[in-house]
Amino acid sequence: MSVVVVTGGIGSGKSSVCRMMYERGWTAQYDADARVKALYVEDNGLLASIEEALDSVLRDGNGVFQPRLLAQRIFSDKDALATVESLVFPALIEDFEKFKRRNAGEEVIVFESATILEKPQFDGLPDIVVLVDAPLELRASRASSRDGADIEAVRSRMASQPLMNRLSQGETDPRVDFAICNDGTPAELADKVEELMSNIHKQFIKK
């Protein structure tokens, strides 16, 4: 089993790449961002630990987790964010290990994450790292259209991903094994995904 991480900044199209990989046979897919949101709800002990560490109530009167309260608590507070990540990331890694065991017969597991390269806690997790990228302004325009959000609000969100933005501007990262420039049509992207999957298979064979 090999773990293929697919990463990219806001509006890059990494989810589209993952979907195309799924359609072409790589069906064991783990969406890290979605699983974090799920763990807040599923793992009551995790949420309780976060509330205790932040000295904050993050649920409504019925005990239901309120993402808005967490976002408000960690907004512009790097220490609070680091505290949450120190609790969430180990839980996420454990959850991923369970996912791997459930999919033990798969040749490839796709791990989708926007921030994995910016978080040292995940060093050593990928066997292959795929970067999905596009020019900054194209990414911003896509995300604005997709989310129905103001372009300046999108740019503000993008600012929270400094490494992804530097990569879009031409910086390289030795951890990236393959890159897809998603600056064309969906059909062109599909062709690039097929070529990428073929190249990754060849790399597996060499190993």
> What is the terminal separation in angstroms?
12 Å
Helix amount, in percent?
A: 40-55%
Describe the sheet with the most strands: 5 strands, parallel
* Rg, Cα atoms, Å: 18 Å
Tell me, what's the shape?
globular
Please report the total strand number as a whole number.
5
| Multimeric state | single chain
Helix-strand topology string: EHEHHHHEEHHHEH
Strand content: 5-15%
Q: What is the typical, i.e. mean, pLDDT?
A: 91
Low-confidence stretches: none
How does this structure look, described?
This protein is α/β, with parallel strands linked by helices. It has 9 helices and 5 strands; from the N terminus they run E-H-E-H-H-H-H-E-E-H-H-H-E-H. The chain has a 5-stranded parallel sheet, sandwiched between helices. Helix 2 (32-42) packs across helix 5 (78-102), helix 3 packs antiparallel against helix 5 and helix 6 (136-147) packs across helix 7 (151-158). The longest helix is centred in the middle third of the chain and has 25 residues, at 78-102. The radius of gyration is 18 Å and the shape is globular. The two termini are 12 Å apart. The mean pLDDT is 91.
